[in-house]
Amino acid sequence: MMNATPADGLASLIQNSERLLALRAKLPTAGLLQTPTPRDFTDFVAVAACFLIFNLLVIRFTAPAPDVLRRIDYAMRQFSMLCFTILARWGWMTLAVYYSPWAAIAAWPLAIFETWSVQFNADVYEGRAMKGVTWRHASKCLVVLVMEGFGVFAGFPLVVKLLGWRQMSSGAPTGAMLLHGAAGMTLAYDLGLDFAFYLFHRACHENRLLYRWIHKEHHTDTGKAFGPLVAFETYTITWSEASFIMVGYVLGLALAGIVAAVFGSDVTLFHLALLLSWGHLVELLGHSTMSWTINGNPLRLLHETLGIELKEVPDHTMHHIKPLSNYGKRTVVWDKLFGTYTAPPAALYDARCVSADGKPKAP
């Protein structure tokens, strides 16, 4: 056999590339890759700046005077980290869908950073010792890799197909759509996801077998490593639990997509990145043991206006004290509708309301 020349190698590369392109043309996502433009990032930065300024103004005029600067500092750090995770998640999703599925591995280190940043900001705000990342906690973030991989490769395409929307693209929505539709999308997403989670969560507590097989680990393995509940323990869940939560994500995404359509936007990977990043933030805050639930965030503006927002720390800590109550993790709608809501006492707004072994305690 003759030795291959550089020209032969180039010809083979071109031939294989043509085959790959022909195969890719048959995929549902063919022709929909939209390379982000400077305008996309300009719109994102402009809208993010408007959201942050609005949030800071709300804090300025609603926070107790001695706590204004501390809350503004927290809001600025948390908001910047949220923007980073949205863009990073959008990036790996685009690479995974259009170039290589292996790019989805980036979901794991991103989840570790995301979880650490929420806990770090909470610790800075509360003035307590920083909690480092342990391998045990980092390994629990693997569930995020699986859940987001399912969302990108199965859940998202399924929603797009079932509801007859244009096939998913990677492009970012316009600044106008973000400005007008983001709050509605997050509300719809939270209601859908929370409804599915409420049903599952309640069933796990009211059925002894389900509790023992699926949910017990979360209640017995939290509040051990560092004392109070910590953000990393959000992902102390079984794979069965994670599987059902993914169903809730699909339902929430479907409702959010309807809102996007109302505002004239296609359903894109950017929406998925935005909603998943928002979803994780709310979940993580529930275990961060902060004495203040941030208010005035435009992504939660409708929740607060309607009076259905979940005070993550006191409301969810109340669930860890009284397990047969407060099953929701994103709103109080379903708990109040079905009579399972228990208002937390004022003392639970103190993040240090824990017993010696770190478990939440009744005041």
UniProtKB/TrEMBL annotation:
The keyword Membrane applies. Pfam families: FA_hydroxylase (PF04116). Its main location: membrane. The keyword Transmembrane helix applies. Keywords: Membrane, Transmembrane, Transmembrane helix. GO terms for biological process: lipid biosynthetic process. InterPro entries: Fatty_acid_hydroxylase (IPR006694), Sterol_Desaturase_Related (IPR050307). It is found in: Membrane. The chain crosses the membrane at residues 44-62, 74-92, 98-120, 141-165, 177-200, 244-263. This is Fatty acid hydroxylase domain-containing protein. It comes from Emiliania huxleyi (strain CCMP1516).
